[in-house]
Here is the input.
Amino acid sequence: MILVTGATGHLGSATIDFLLKKMPSSQIVGLARDEQKAAGLQAKGVAVRLGSYDDPASLAKAMQGIEKMLLIAGTDEERRVQQHQNVLDAAQRARVGFIAYTSRTLKDRATLANQLMVGHFETEDAIKESGLAYSLFRNGLYMDAIPQFAGPNVFDTGITLPAGLGRVPFALRREMGEAIANVLAADSAAKPVYQLTGSASYSFADVAQVLTELSGKQVKYTPAEVSAFAQGLKGRGLPDVIVGRIIGFMTDIKNGQEDAVSPDLEQLLGRKPASLHEGLKALYKL
Here is the structure.
């Protein structure tokens, strides 16, 4: 039995869809907080167990009979590490044989600008110390996030971000879910660490160039100054804490924290991951 947490989220549901192609639905369990949101999983024959990372009792029930589990990182960045520890504790007590975790491909935890990302490394440490067999999926940035980074009017305004010419090996979230499912479904031993990235890294100047080619409209990338960019975000009503997170994210890209290309995704898929051109064409329906 394989348990996937965050089962109604984008990555969780994608992973389950690919698991369903490899094994009977009776062997797949989804952990969800909202039964209504999980109705689609139940319609596919996937068992749904209700629970949350903040509720140890529900986690204990969810772990019963589970042999492998995928812990998808929680979205509450302030409480993330404690929530993940709750899941680990429940898995240990239930004698789960193997745990996988969706971490991040960041080069150096000591020099991160976005300190909230340190929680991924702290979770990795806890998993390594748990005594459980494990795999860490260090995921690159989702290509699916580019429309959010670029903004809704990208073909009119271009892209303005304080990311310099920092490069990112963007990959589609769905392909990451497929790769994770391949590891979970395999009988062979998994590696301790997988870095799930695209086959090449790209700057936002590259993103702008590809959008220009696909749309026929000139899309320009302008590296922004941090102070002006921050003022613009505040002018849109974003609170200081959110502004700080966005700036930290972009600073890490600028400093090369994200620029680590790995062959792992290609090897797990058995094909090259979608290129920037292929991915943006699909995401923007061009």
Notes: The longest helix spans residues 240-254.
